[in-house]
Design goal:
Length: 322
């Protein structure tokens, strides 16, 4: 107890009350990103350096060995990694019907259709997460089990393929959400093995490995940590014959004089790392951001195969909105 200026007794702030105040402060900042950046900077620095605590655990998880992961703010990503964000029967039915409609429409035109999913970093490097839970089927595993039974369609989940290589290769950036060039090549190779087309495969021996700093740590930026991660890049050894016909943010078009088949890929940012490999395998490649199939484009371009590349954390939202 102590006395204030009016000689009244005022309770001292206990440590438990202090911790509760910090907890409330944390919740307030987590939900109010419109505050001044300098105030947020001070809060994050205080949490990291004074309390040695994760400042925004709902958005960023600080893992082991310098690994950073997105938190549940992003599509309940952490919970889903352990199967704790299951889909309802109604959602599964809607996803099945959406995939069925697209697949049947493209098949009627003689076009192959595939959905390929780069996995969340959480599933490939679960051992580096700060917390572990009992493993149950993820949303992707739920969807695959349901649609294989209902419509004989399977989404290509690249998790097992990548996990087979992680003892010999680093496959994801520690400070960024994305896979690296090595993982993208592995995913590309597995995808081509799944497609029922006779197309040539690009080989990793055609590329040099170069090392340098990551351009952007998109996870660590959320908690104001500057990334100093050193990563591997693949660079082509010899000049390419591939021509870029169109270069817009949401529409890229390439032609390869050495290929014969045509690919249209609806995609997100994970495709940035593997487009050059597909360009080497197909005569024409068209990449479109988003998943809105335009019938006129399909009719005019007459692709041999259509691929939806969707990062796992966005999969459910995309498939429900098709």
């Amino acid at each position: 107890m102590f006395l204030n200026s009016d000689d009244k007794k005022v309770p001292m702030l206990s440590f438990s009350n202090f911790k509760e105040s910090i907890k409330n402060f944390n919740s307030y900042y987590t939900e109010n990103f419109g505050l001044k950046p300098e105030m947020l900077d001070s809060y994050i620095e205080f949490k990291l350096n004074v309390l040695n605590d994760n400042p925004l655990p709902d958005r960023v998880l600080i893992g082991e060995e310098g690994w950073y992961f997105l938190g549940n703010h992003h599509e309940n990503l952490f919970d889903d990694s352990f199967g704790n964000a299951p889909l309802s029967q109604l959602e599964l039915e809607k996803i099945k019907n959406n995939i069925k409609a697209i697949n049947e429409n493209l098949a009627s035109k003689g076009i192959e259709f595939h959905i390929v999913v780069p996995p969340n970093k959480h599933r490939v490097y679960a051992e580096n997460l700060p917390y572990r839970m009992h493993q149950k089927p993820t949303r992707l595993e739920q969807i695959n089990a349901f649609i294989k039974k209902e419509i004989d369609f399977e989404i290509l989940d690249l998790k097992d393929t990548l996990s087979e290589h992680k003892s010999s290769e680093i496959l994801y950036y520690k400070t960024n959400t994305h896979w690296n060039d090595i993982a993208a090549y592995i995913g590309y190779h597995k995808t081509l093995n799944t497609i029922d087309l006779d197309v040539p495969k690009d080989h990793i021996s055609n590329y040099n490995r170069e090392y340098g700093p990551i351009k952007r740590g998109d996870i660590t930026e959320m908690i104001n940590i500057k990334s100093d991660e050193n990563i591997v890049y693949l660079s082509k050894k010899n000049p390419s014959d591939i021509m870029q016909l169109k270069s817009e943010n949401h529409h890229l078009h390439f032609r390869n004089p050495n290929g014969t088949k045509k690919l249209i890929m609806y995609r997100d940012s994970f495709s940035n790392a593997w487009m050059r490999f597909f360009n080497s395998s197909f005569g024409e490649t068209i990449y479109l951001r988003g998943y809105n199939i335009q019938p006129n484009m399909i009719t005019n371009e007459k692709p041999d195969v259509v691929i939806f590349e969707i990062v796992e954390r966005q999969l459910t939202t995309i498939l429900l909105d098709l």
